[in-house]
Structure formats: structure tokens, C-alpha cells
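Project outcomes to date are best conveyed with an example. Our students and postdoctoral researchers have been running inverse folding experiments weekly, and each run begins with a structure described purely in C-alpha cells. The record below, which covers 533 residues, was selected by the lab manager from last quarter's runs and is presented without edits.
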């Protein structure tokens, strides 16, 4: 397989011999296992890997339209279609887990939080702690708080799993084992029992921990932690900030107990919140990913065709209104999605957990919706969905988004090898219609169910069906359209109204001004308590 770094023909003139020869080499590689011709995802700038075409059509597209500029690693062709490459790739992953790339993994995890020497930061270079600056001594500087964690992980990465073991280090084996636990859904009890068996089976002197708890203590530094925030069982409030103290035992709104077991301090409901800033910073720790975070500005085909959210009118309008934010393409554009699901996988158990997920839209379209780039923001517990009370649970995320918009956070860019002030904004939400109603605050059922028509929604209650039907959709047609005057085929009326005006933020604020929102599931009790307070 041709080395990905030698594919300079991608940037050559499309009529040059080098480019045409490069296209032929690509087609030979992509169709090497297509005995009867077949089709492949076309990597031209028009198809962008979404459409599968035959060899002749692919050649025409690549010559006429050109290949995606950033597609210098053929992950949709050779790496997954060629068995030998797939085996080599799996071997590489195994080798990385066995210790071959442990040092690089630790460096990536600590980049930006541990003080390193300036000349050690770069592509492919290991980060070494500047021990002269960080060793605590009476006349020197205070030791960096992350240094102990870094040194402990480096020690585990170098330590043999057992005397004479050359394939695994202690850290690489634990990561490999923990990965298998998650992939095959091992229970905690099974993992503890399996660790006990391995400790008995391995030679004397093995460095395995004895339990899952101790395993987590070793590898948790590599990951990104989350916060447990106690919540009112009626979804009225979160026990955070000044109310985080465990001495606050009752909800200040409805009076419900904070605890399921007061003596043991077991909370009745817990929100898992995953801080956003460190997760966005990690996108810039890898030089490859950091470069891709500029794709929407530097490598996107700007010919007016809608292929990426950056081609949309909403994105362009935002850029015109907030030019300072748009001036740095590294500033992150986010989308938010949320919906409920049953974590137990059975319809017999009525339980609804709501994850809130963020997607970074700076990335190319073939990556920004991939699972590995989804950012889990929070897990809202059940057993019932939060409904309109989702506003209570979104408080920490909204606060962090406001901070990222106003001031940002200092972030190290591994591609440009510099630190910049990263900012972020939430562009839109992605939901089905009921969840959209919860997030927007507009009731998506009943007489005024249409958020576009708003108070101008034309609805009619069916006498026998006892449901609302909506017959005012003809107002969105052109004034000269024949359906506007066709009363017989519809509800017996002609349509003369124009389409409703799109809602602006100021209009929505005017509509909700003066409305008192009541959050919490026990509405009668809540309203009584609020009157007293």
C-alpha cells in the first residue's frame, strides 16, 4: 500500500500527469478486491464519500471535481477493504495496548496540564517533564500538582506485568483488560473474580491490582472525570454551588428529602455531568484532530452547494453577526441532541434515562457525526423523563457554555504548537418533535402545536376523533398556487393568508415576559410552597 505521506498528487493540478497517475493508483488500490467491478464511495468534492459509483464514474469525478483535499488517508477504501491492512491495523492497536505507544498516550493525556520543556512539544515527540523547574525545594518553584500523576503513570507504563514479561507492561495490560470489560459488558463482580484468577495464574511477583476499584485508581488519570450532582427527586432543583453542602437535606422548592437513605447519605437522584472544557481541549491535543478542527474554514469547498452545516444560511448569518468569534476557525461550533431511552433494553421495565450529547461541527462531514467525536455532556436519571424540567438539569451546561462564549479557555493547539483562547457556541439542537418541545419550551401538542406558526397556528378539534388537526399549511405556498383557492379538496375554505413571519429571539422574549415558570413534578405542592416563600 502506498504511504499516505507520499500522496502529494492530491494537491497537484488536475490535468497534470502526476495527478492523473495518482488517480489511477488510487483506483487500482480501491478496486483491488472488486473482482466484478463493483462500486466504492466516491471521494470527489461533490460526492464526499456519500455516493457509491463504479470505477469509470469515479475517475471522471476525480478529474472533473477533484479529490477531497484532506483525504490523504484512505480509511473508506484500503484500510477497511484490504484484509492485510486491517490485520496490520489491528496488530498496531494491539501493540499500542501492549506498551508500544503507552508513552505517547500519557503525553497526549497530560499535554496542556503538565509543565513540559518547550522544545519537547511537537508532532511525534515525547513530552518530558521539566524536573528542574518542578522539583519542590526550599528555593525553587512549587511542584506542579499533575506531576505526581504523570510520574506514577510513566512508572506503570515501564513496569513489567510480571518478571520476564515482554509483551505487556502493567498499564498496557490493565487498559487492554478494561477495554474488553466495556466492550463485552462484564459485570464488576466478574471483573473482580477474573482479576483474582489472573493473580493466581500469573507467576509470582505479578503487578496486577486485586480489584476493579484499584484498577480504576490506576487508569482514571488518563480519562476525563465527571461530576455527580445531587438532584431533587421531583426535579425542582440541583444541590450545587451554595446548596452542595450535605447539610442541606431538603429541596428548597417542594420540601422533598434529598436522601434515599439519610443515615448513609445515599442521594435520591444523581445527575452525572461531564465538564465540557477539558473535552473540547482534548480535541486540540492531537495534531491531526487539531488540523481537522479548521476544516470548515480552510478545506471546505465553498462553491455554494450545501454539503456541511458551514454552508447553511444559519452559519453564514452567525459569522456576519459575530465576526470576532468567526475570525478564529478553531472556535468550536456545537450542536446539542437529547432524547430518552431505556437503559435496561426491555419494554417490561418502564425507565427513561436522558443523555445530552454535543457534536463539534468544525470537523469534516464524514467525521463530525461519528460516535468517537460525540461529547457526552450529562446523563439525566429516570425513572421518568425530565419533561419541561430539563431546564433544571441543563443549568451546569448553560453556565459552562456562557463562560466559553464570554471568555473562553486557554487551550494548547498541537498543530500550530501554540496556546490560544478557545471559545465555543451552541448553534442549534437536534431532536424529535416531543423532545424539541421540552428544550424550546413551546408545547408541541394541542391547539398551538406548530412552533413555526406560533400563535397563528390554524387548528381544529375533531369532534369524533377527539384530536386536533391542522389545515393551515397552504399559507406556505406561493400566492398564485392553485391549492390556495381549492376549497373543495381541503376544509371548504380558501387560503389567503401569507406565511407566518419567522420568530426572532426578541419576539420570543416578549411572549414569555411575565410568565412564572413552575418546575418540578409535584405541581400542587410546589405552588403552595412557593406562595409561602
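After processing, the design step wrote out the following sequence:
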Amino acid at each position: 500500500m502506498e504511504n499516505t505521506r507520499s500522496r502529494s498528487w492530491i494537491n497537484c493540478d488536475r490535468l497534470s500527469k502526476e495527478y492523473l497517475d495518482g488517480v489511477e493508483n488510487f483506483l487500482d488500490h480501491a478496486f483491488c478486491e472488486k473482482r466484478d467491478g463493483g462500486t466504492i464511495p466516491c471521494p470527489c468534492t461533490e460526492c464526499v464519500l456519500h455516493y457509491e459509483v463504479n470505477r469509470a464514474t469515479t475517475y471522471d469525478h476525480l478529474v472533473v471535481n477533484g479529490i477531497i483535499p484532506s483525504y490523504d488517508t484512505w480509511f473508506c477504501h484500503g484500510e477497511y477493504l484490504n484484509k492485510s491492512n486491517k490485520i496490520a491495523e489491528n496488530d498496531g492497536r494491539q501493540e499500542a495496548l501492549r506498551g508500544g505507544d503507552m508513552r505517547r498516550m500519557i503525553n497526549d493525556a497530560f499535554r496542556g496540564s503538565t509543565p513540559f520543556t518547550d522544545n519537547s512539544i511537537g508532532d511525534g515527540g515525547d513530552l518530558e517533564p521539566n524536573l528542574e523547574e518542578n522539583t519542590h525545594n526550599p528555593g525553587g518553584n512549587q511542584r506542579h500538582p499533575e506531576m505526581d500523576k504523570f510520574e506514577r503513570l510513566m512508572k506503570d507504563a515501564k513496569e513489567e506485568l510480571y518478571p520476564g514479561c515482554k509483551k505487556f507492561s502493567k498499564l498496557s495490560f490493565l487498559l487492554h483488560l478494561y477495554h474488553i470489560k466495556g466492550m463485552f459488558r462484564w459485570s464488576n463482580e466478574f471483573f473482580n473474580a477474573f482479576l483474582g484468577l489472573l493473580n493466581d495464574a500469573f507467576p509470582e511477583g505479578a503487578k496486577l491490582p486485586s480489584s476493579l476499584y484499584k484498577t480504576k485508581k490506576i487508569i482514571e488519570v488518563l480519562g476525563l472525570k465527571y461530576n455527580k450532582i445531587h438532584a431533587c427527586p421531583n426535579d425542582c432543583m440541583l444541590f450545587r454551588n451554595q446548596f452542595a453542602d450535605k447539610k442541606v437535606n431538603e429541596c428548597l422548592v417542594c420540601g422533598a428529602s434529598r436522601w434515599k437513605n439519610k443515615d448513609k447519605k445515599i442521594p435520591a437522584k444523581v445527575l452525572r455531568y461531564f465538564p465540557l472544557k477539558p473535552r473540547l481541549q482534548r480535541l486540540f491535543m492531537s495534531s491531526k484532530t487539531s488540523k481537522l478542527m479548521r476544516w470548515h474554514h480552510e478545506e471546505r469547498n465553498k462553491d455554494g452547494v450545501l454539503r456541511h452545516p458551514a454552508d447553511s444560511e444559519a452559519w453564514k448569518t452567525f459569522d456576519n453577526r459575530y465576526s470576532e468569534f468567526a475570525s478564529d476557525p478553531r472556535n468550536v461550533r456545537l450542536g446539542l441532541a437529547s432524547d430518552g431511552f431505556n437503559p435496561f433494553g426491555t419494554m417490561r421495565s418502564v425507565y427513561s434515562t436522558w443523555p445530552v450529547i454535543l457534536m463539534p461541527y468544525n470537523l469534516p462531514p464524514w467525521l463530525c457525526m461519528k460516535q468517537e467525536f460525540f461529547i457526552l455532556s450529562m446523563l439525566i436519571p429516570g425513572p421518568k423523563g425530565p419533561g419541561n424540567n430539563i431546564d433544571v438539569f441543563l443549568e451546569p451546561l448553560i453556565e459552562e457554555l456562557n463562560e466559553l462564549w464570554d471568555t473562553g479557555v486557554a487551550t494548547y493547539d498541537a498543530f500550530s504548537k501554540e496556546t490560544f483562547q478557545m471559545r465555543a457556541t451552541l448553534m442549534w439542537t437536534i431532536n424529535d418533535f416531543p423532545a424539541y418541545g421540552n428544550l424550546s419550551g413551546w408545547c408541541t401538542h394541542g391547539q398551538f402545536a406548530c412552533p413555526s406558526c406560533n400563535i397563528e397556528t390554524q387548528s381544529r378539534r375533531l369532534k369524533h376523533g377527539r384530536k386536533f388537526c391542522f389545515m393551515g399549511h397552504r399559507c406556505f405556498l406561493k400566492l398564485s398556487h392553485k391549492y390556495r383557492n381549492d376549497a373543495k379538496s381541503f376544509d371548504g375554505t380558501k387560503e389567503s393568508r401569507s406565511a407566518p413571519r419567522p420568530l426572532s429571539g426578541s419576539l420570543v422574549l416578549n411572549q414569555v415576559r411575565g410568565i412564572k415558570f413552575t418546575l418540578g413534578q409535584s405541581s400542587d405542592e410546589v405552588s403552595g410552597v412557593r406562595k409561602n416563600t
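The chain has a mean pLDDT of 79. Residues 83-100 form the longest helix (18 residues). The training component of this project remains on track.
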